[in-house]
């Protein structure tokens, strides 16, 4: 097999840090590989990935050798590097520099000095291959996150590189769009033979597409093999267990031997049938009924909102949220969820209808009073930051809220959200996941009556997601009412009390979480899909108990 | 009447170098005259073009902004020109006196119209000279600068969007720019700018790295879009240049210009008709050309 990337004894530490991020890494990537790099947050996945692209190699203390297609990476000219290795970043918004799709695709070719007719030929060919031909003259800022990430991929692919690196490319996308993006990536690898290396937390789809997986633990590679074997290896680590997709987890947790380990819904159903597995619902303690149930905290009546006067983004919407409830609003990107949340907390005023928080019209509550009772975490937490360090950020919020013992409160939140190591860092420089945690800490500081969250789990690894879910559940039990817009079915299934679907500017009937997912066919959890014939109410691995394993 | 898509208009198809020269000519004209009626003729020409090329909605918004801008410039001009006659109204506050004179008022109106016209020219330039056309024009002179100017065009749009979002979301941190005294509001807006800068810098670093990763600066850049001179481009730019020469000659004869604010005693001077006529033709040249273009198309 042709060796495309060779890493020999690579060790790396960031400047002024003694602890190594990568320690004696040895790795060979072959031409045509679809390689998944898995590991905990902070395990060095992105650092390793960035070492394969000369322009993105991090500054620090480095030992070892990396060669790309036989050439040491430092000897690659800028031109060679651009034409050999492509890179797609996590945040789709940071890559584009031109205003139109066609210009964004032409940009890298103009950079390498391609003649005009060659540029045109490549754009024609690639846009037809990726289905972008109808979008070429669209403005970049009018594209959805999924379309933008596809343009970013196209803008790298147009240079015809041998290797494409992707750093959690779907973490900002909703699940259906993420799946489409990964399918395109798989086509690129299968049909064009381009080598793909990506880091990813959502293993459910990618494990079925990648032919190889490496596991980074304790700063080094602890596993290198097929994704199914890698998942089995992850099951041995307490923290990495959270990363395992629910279908293989069901089989591993119940010690069901199935070869190969099922990953997809179809494989899971086939394995259940083949082994004649019988599941029953897990007995659970009865849910505690709050005394405050059915006391409305927030009511929205007949609200309509439009940005441009041509189309109602919110259209005659009614909603009542009871005190102590946790409501999840599910819907695709662009369905109006974020606009609705902005209206519910009084940041935006609807053209029609009223929204009352207790008895007050929400947008008439003074801002200083409102932040004590209603907290909000937007899907871009950095736009809510205001200080130069994480510590200051928390102190500013404590001052605004006039908390009685700010130092103690800050200490508790820092411990709860594991912010100790980044306290002195600039909040705009920390990772997306850390920004999300800081945003949550700020939002919870007020101990609000109502907590409104817009994609609270975006960019978080599965372990941190569960930690966040448990913290929010604890807050809910202490009297906080939660409204959350999310794409994350499994998170909603695990933590929300009620769910609803946002569509065409309004909300469907609010249903208890189990009823909501059990009635859904497309928007439901993988577990519900594979066992709905046996246990219609099962949504998560913990909802199932293996009754018998017949042959 | 349904508006013609911009890319179907004659003006948007003019060779980028020709349209750059034309916009430069318009700017020169704005600086040549300072009489109110002449400035009015220039702005009327630009408003007509604005409605045609930018659309009713965009132009109405710009006119709303322009009206408040006009009042601001007018106020400062009358404030800075206190020694002229005839005084229409005056106001005493302690030892300070504010005199509102007719001459200063007329001068202020003329200056405001010229400045607003300049903004309208830039608004038109922004849609006609799209980023790739700008790169094409300026690349031979300063390739990197041309690229950066073009990128900054798309960044400005993102900047405005982000600024609006910041103003909304910072309310959740009790930073509400719509409440408090003028000083408090100003401080809050400045703080929002500071946040904006921090956020933009952090993403700009990543964008720059990703540009590098796609070969920016690797070799001499080429251009995907190539533009060829048509005879219509030559006719358009020759006619506009001829008009400019005539207008410069008229200015040389001291038409449409007064040296001192004290000379601003009348709104209309009969001698202004000459520059007004030529300027209207030059400023409305794209619209006139559209008519000819329509007549010549199948």
Automatic annotation (TrEMBL), chain A:
Keywords: ATP-binding, Cell membrane, Membrane, Nucleotide-binding, Repeat, Translocase, Transport
Gene Ontology CC terms, in alphabetical order: ATP-binding cassette (ABC) transporter complex
CDD domains named in the record: ABC_cobalt_CbiO_domain1
SMART domains reported in the protein's UniProt record: AAA
Pfam families registered for this protein in UniProt: ABC_tran (PF00005)
Topology within the bilayer: Peripheral membrane protein
Subcellular compartments: Cell membrane
InterPro entries named in the record: AAA+_ATPase (IPR003593), ABC_transporter-like_ATP-bd (IPR003439), ABC_transporter-like_CS (IPR017871), ABC_transpr_CbiO/EcfA_su (IPR015856), ECF_ABC_transporter_ATP-bd (IPR050095), P-loop_NTPase (IPR027417)
Record keyword Signal present: no
Family in the record: Belongs to the ABC transporter superfamily.
Function noted in UniProt: Probably part of an ABC transporter complex. Responsible for energy coupling to the transport system.
Protein name (Swiss-Prot/TrEMBL): Putative ABC transporter ATP-binding protein
Organism from which the protein derives: Lentilactobacillus rapi
């Amino acid at each position: 097999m042709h060796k495309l990337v060779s890493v020999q004894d690579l060790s790396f530490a960031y400047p002024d840090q003694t602890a190594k991020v990568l320690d004696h890494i040895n790795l060979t990537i072959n031409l045509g590989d679809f390689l998944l790099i898995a590991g905990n947050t902070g395990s060095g996945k992105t650092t390793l990935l960035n070492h394969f692209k000369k322009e993105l190699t991090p500054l620090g203390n480095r030992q070892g050798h990396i060669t790309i297609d036989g050439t040491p990476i430092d000897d690659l000219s800028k031109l060679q590097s651009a034409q050999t290795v492509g890179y797609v970043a996590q945040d789709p918004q940071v890559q584009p520099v031109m205003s139109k799709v066609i210009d964004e695709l032409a940009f890298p070719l103009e950079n390498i000095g391609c003649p005009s007719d060659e540029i045109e030929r490549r754009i024609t060919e690639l846009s037809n291959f990726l289905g972008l031909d109808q979008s070429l003259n669209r403005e970049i800022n009018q594209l959805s996150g999924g379309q933008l990430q596809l343009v970013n991929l196209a803008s790298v692919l147009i240079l015809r590189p041998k290797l494409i690196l992707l750093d959690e490319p779907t973490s900002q996308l909703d699940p259906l769009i993420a799946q489409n993006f990964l399918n395109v990536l798989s086509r690129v690898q299968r049909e064009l033979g381009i080598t793909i290396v990506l880091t990813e937390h959502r293993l459910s789809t990618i494990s079925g597409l990648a032919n190889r997986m490496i596991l980074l633990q304790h700063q080094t590679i602890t596993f290198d093999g097929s994704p199914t074997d890698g998942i089995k290896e992850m099951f041995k680590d307490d923290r990495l267990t959270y990363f395992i997709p629910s279908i293989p987890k069901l089989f591993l947790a119940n010690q069901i031997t199935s070869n190969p380990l099922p990953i997809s819904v179809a494989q899971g159903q086939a394995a259940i049938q083949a082994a004649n597995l019988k599941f029953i619902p897990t007995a659970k303690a009865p849910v505690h009924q709050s005394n405050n149930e059915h006391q409305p905290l927030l009511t929205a009546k007949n609200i309509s909102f439009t940005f441009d006067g041509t189309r109602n983004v919110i259209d005659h919407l009614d909603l009542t949220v009871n005190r102590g409830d946790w409501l999840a609003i599910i819907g695709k990107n662009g369905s109006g969820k974020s606009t609705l949340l902005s209206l519910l907390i009084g940041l935006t005023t609807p053209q029609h209808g009223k929204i009352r928080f207790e008895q007050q019209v929400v947008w008439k509550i003074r801002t200083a009073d409102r932040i004590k009772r209603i907290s909000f975490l937007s899907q871009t937490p950095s736009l809510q930051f205001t200080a130069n360090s994480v510590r200051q950020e928390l102190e500013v919020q404590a001052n605004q809220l006039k908390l009685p013992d700010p130092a103690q409160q800050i200490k508790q939140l820092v411990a709860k959200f594991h912010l100790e190591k980044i306290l002195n860092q600039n909040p705009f420089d920390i990772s997306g996941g850390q920004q999300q945690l800081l945003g949550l800490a700020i939002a919870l500081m007020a101990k609000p009556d109502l907590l409104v969250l817009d994609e609270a789990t975006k960019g978080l690894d599965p372990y941190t997601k569960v930690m966040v879910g448990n913290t929010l559940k604890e807050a809910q039990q202490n009297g906080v009412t939660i409204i959350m817009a999310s794409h994350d079915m499994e998170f909603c299934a695990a933590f929300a009390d009620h769910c609803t679907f946002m569509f065409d500017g309004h909300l469907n009937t609010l249903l208890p979480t189990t009823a909501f997912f059990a009635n859904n066919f497309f928007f439901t959890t993988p577990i519900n899909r594979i066992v709905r014939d046996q246990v219609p109410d099962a949504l998560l691995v913990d909802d199932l108990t293996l009754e018998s394993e017949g042959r | 009447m349904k508006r013609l898509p911009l890319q179907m208009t004659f003006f948007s198809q003019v060779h980028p170098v020709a349209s750059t020269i034309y916009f430069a000519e318009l700017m020169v004209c704005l600086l040549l005259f300072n009489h109110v009626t002449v400035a009015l003729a220039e702005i009327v020409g630009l408003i007509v073009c604005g409605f045609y090329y930018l659309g009713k909605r965009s132009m109405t918004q710009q006119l709303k902004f322009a009206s408040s801008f006009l009042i601001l410039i007018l106020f400062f001009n009358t404030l800075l020109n206190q020694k002229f006659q005839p005084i229409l109204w005056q106001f005493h506050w302690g030892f300070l006196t504010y005199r509102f004179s007719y001459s200063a008022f007329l001068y202020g109106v003329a200056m405001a119209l010229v400045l607003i016209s300049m903004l309208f020219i830039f608004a038109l330039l922004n849609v006609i000279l799209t980023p790739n056309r700008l790169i094409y024009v300026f690349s031979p002179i300063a390739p990197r600068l041309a690229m950066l100017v073009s990128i900054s065009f798309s960044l400005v749009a993102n900047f405005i969007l982000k600024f609006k979002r910041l103003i909304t979301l910072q309310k959740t941190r009790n930073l509400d720019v719509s409440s408090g005294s003028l000083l408090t509001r100003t401080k809050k807006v400045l703080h929002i700018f500071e946040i904006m800068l921090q956020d933009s810098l952090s993403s700009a670093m990543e964008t720059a790295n990703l540009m590098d990763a796609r070969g920016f600066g690797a070799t001499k850049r080429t251009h995907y879009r190539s533009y060829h001179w048509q005879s219509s481009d030559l006719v358009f730019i020759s006619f506009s240049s001829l008009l400019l020469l005539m207008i410069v000659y008229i200015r040389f004869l001291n038409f449409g210009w007064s040296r001192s604010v004290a000379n601003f005693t009348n709104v209309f001077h009969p001698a202004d008709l000459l520059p007004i006529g030529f300027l209207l033709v030059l400023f409305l040249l794209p619209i006139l050309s559209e008519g000819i273009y329509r007549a010549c198309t199948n």
